[in-house]
Amino acid sequence: MRHLLDTDTLTRDEAIRILDxxxxxxxxxxxxxxxxxxxxxxxxxxxxxxxxxxxxISFEAAAKRLSADVINFxxxxxxxSKGESLKDTALTLQAMGADAxxxxxxxxxxxxxxxxxxxxxxxxxxxxxxxxxxxxxALLDAFTMRRHLVDDSAGKALDGVTVAIVGDILHSRxxxxxxxxxxxLGAKVxxxxxxxxxxxxxxxxxxxxxxxxxDDAIEAHDIDxxxxxxxxxxxxxxxxxxxxxxxxEYTRLFGLDGDRLRRMPDHAIVLHPGPMNRGLEISAEAADxxxxxxxxxxxxxxxxxxxALYLLLAGEEAPQ
Length: 320
Fold this sequence. Notes:
By secondary structure, the chain is of the alpha/beta class. It has two domains: 12-133 and 298-313, Rossmann fold (3-Layer(aba) Sandwich); 135-297, Rossmann fold (3-Layer(aba) Sandwich). Helices cover 37% and strands 14% of the residues. It has helices at residues 12-28, 53-65, 86-95, 110-116, 135-149, 173-184, 214-220, 247-254, 258-262, 284-287, 294-313; strands at residues 43-48, 69-74, 100-105, 123-129, 162-166, 188-192, 208-211, 225-228, 269-271. Strands 7-6-5-8-9 form a five-stranded parallel sheet. A four-stranded parallel sheet has the order 2-1-3-4, with helices on both faces. α1 (12-28) crosses α5 (135-149) and α5 packs across α6 (173-184). The relative contact order is 0.16.
């Protein structure tokens, strides 16, 4: 694996190898001494064209815990905001000796463009590109599900697990990454959204079950994990007014509250990529429920990103 750009091209074996390495990395983080010498002498650059404190800090923590040198490069206040091209930036990073670049960009395809350009020789990890993909988020979600829903999970996938992804599918790179990864890992994927927030052609796919209310999905399936997506008003013209009648109507049809959670199997878990719109797509009761693994997703994100950096930069097997 040369780069980590999307989940569409990850094979089942590659995905399981990342999840297994993530488990080993998570185990090292329970020790008193959490820092590993594995990537000492390597340089990781966080190149962020979009604000994302959570993802940037997670990648920074992951790289530092592997003893890599980290450079945080924000587009705001840099030459990038003055018109410097992605090519010029890549050449600069190459000259600085970047071994890996973690890129977050507002344009779909930017990470693939950087990786395939020949402008630099380092590894590229996509930390979110437009409405396209966010592969490490999907991997940390899958890792979290596997830990809770699959017995003796090492070496295993998500075969037989039913996952409902609810909300703004159209604008969500989290959904764009989770759907192919979950299918690769053998999970059954249930999509729940208003028709206006579904990508074109999704209702014609025979590998997905699509529902137009959360109640319908709960009645039709034994849901093992429900992933609530943030309503991305900043990506919608009119702040969402053209996609659903009102916030109250959206919550009534698609919001997860305590009552709907209680109608799911007792073992069902609740995920959310964050940040949450409490009271819109998820209630405080559901978000703070003992069945919620939202906070755990954040800590798992560090382990998964450690695994991705390690496998790209150092080798095949994670340290024990």
